[in-house]
């Protein structure tokens, strides 16, 4: 499911580019332009010892992130995980876990859709606020539906 969402996002980036797909397809360039907006999302209920992990993509510079619902929603307790963290990609990977995961930020669940397996989380901004790299995409109807729905709002 995660690969499906990431595939859709990558196709959106390619589709929305100024030149056509056939003339501008360069995997290295796509990676260079989009890799910084991919984040690691971890969720936990410390009191219940449930954990989840997945990836997400920053879709707005203020820290709005799209991920999968199964990453932030605990099926066993039938509620969202109580603690969500987002890890930003370091400028340079060192191979040292402590160093490479030092850019950790707390996040809050904004909304989710179980049928779509899509969720929107937002990084709790430190002071001064971060300006995060994001995917230059339009909000598709499914993403907008999850973001604006009051059905699962917190």
Structure description:
This protein is of the alpha+beta class and 154 residues long. Helix content is 27%, strand content 30%. It is built from six helices and eight strands; from the N terminus they run H-H-H-E-E-E-H-E-E-E-H-E-E-H. Strands 1-2-3-8-7-6 form a six-stranded antiparallel barrel. A two-stranded antiparallel ribbon has the order 4-5. Strand 1 and strand 2 form a beta hairpin. The longest helix is centred in the first third of the chain and has 14 residues, at 2-15. It is globular, with a radius of gyration of 16 Å. The two termini are 24 Å apart. The mean pLDDT is 79.
Characterize the overall form: globular
Report the sheet with the most strands, covering strand number, pairing sense and barrel closure. Answer: 6 strands, antiparallel, barrel
**What radius of gyration results from the CA coordinates?**
16 Å
Detail the poorly predicted runs. Answer: none
Category from helices, strands and their pairing: alpha+beta
Strands in their spatial order, largest beta sheet: 1-2-3-8-7-6
DSSP summary: helix tally = 6
What is the CA-CA span between the terminal residues? 24 Å
How would you sum up this structure in a few lines?
By secondary structure, the chain is of the alpha+beta class.
Task: List its salient traits.
six-stranded antiparallel β-barrel; two-stranded antiparallel sheet; 27% helix; 8 strands; 154 residues; alpha+beta; single chain; 30% strand
